[in-house]
Amino acid sequence: MGKFQSKVKRNSSKYRTDSHVEETAPVQTNQQVSRAHNDAVTYIAALKSDLCVSGGKDKAVVVSNWRTGTALKRFVGHEREVSKVTCVFGSNRFFSASRDKTVLLWDLHCKAGSAQKFIGHHLIVTGLAVSPDCTTLVTGSRDNTLCKWDVETGQCLLKAAVSRNLVTHLSWVPGDSYIVQTSEDKSTRVWDSRNLQVAHTFPVKQYIQMHCDVSEDGNYCVTSSNGFGGQGCEATLWDLRQTKSIVCEYKGHLQSTTSCIFLPKGMSDGTLVATTSHDCTVKVWQRDTAACVSSLFLDGSGPLSSLAVCDNTSILCASFNSGIQTLHIDYSRGSSLRQVAKF
After folding, report:
1. Judging by DSSP bridges, how do beta strands 197-201 and 246-250 pair with one another?
2. What are the distances in angstroms from CA 100 to CA 26, 59, 126?
3. Domains of the chain by range and CATH?
4. Which of 54, 69, 126, 241 is a Cys-bridge partner for 33, taking CB atoms 3.0 to 4.6 Å apart?
5. Per-residue pLDDT averaged across 60-77, rounded?
């Protein structure tokens, strides 16, 4: 798949305003601080070097300073729980998807409400992928469809449907026009965002594919499986350049593996993968050998739902019972993990 980088578009159109934003009071900095959400945290993403954005079952989207555990802004606009959030790292804009079938665009510095609303799916929106220039958004849903949107206008540019393709996650390939998508039909598809057509489908796995991520060089993708009792529950590495067979599998979780991410080169040498699971563990793997180099059990956290990279030594983990937890990776001790805070 050739590299493709779209040009940045400039558009002065004004956004529609709805919903509202609540400023939240800072909380004290310590190991246990006030929770960012008052219910399960469903997804988390890194927004800036010190900020993260999270969505929860409380229908809210929250921007927090993860270094201090301070909830800075609470964005309210969805009618049902938030299923996914995404953003372009370093920007002030981020997107949230919900069980209410909508996607909202938010601006960190806007106090009037959501900046744009994307309406077109018939069931819960479960996948979000935004282009590196933040001009194009692709969404996926349990209604078997993907939609391509113009971020500035909110217009649906293209819509594609594949039978039984209940979307679970989307991930944009860095520096390219392709998107990786996982599904409840156990498939992993690669889409060309230019015409919203399937460019490739990987061999079907035995279990539902829950999540996916793409390496920063655009060469590999990793997907994760549901399962129980250690059956399924693995993460799978695929090579986007040859797209024929599995490179390797990361096996060790006992329940569904809900999130899988590549740890970038800034976090050691760029050959590590992290996973999290409903079994309350976070694991770090050697990408090429599939060796588990670290495992951390987060007691009392309940099912773990999502991971996000913060800086060169920190990962955020979203959970059902314990909010958001900050984990430190100690590379001097074989990439060992330890919990440092939760909020």
Report:
1. unpaired
2. 30, 10, 11
3. 202-343 (2.130.10.10)
4. 69
5. 95
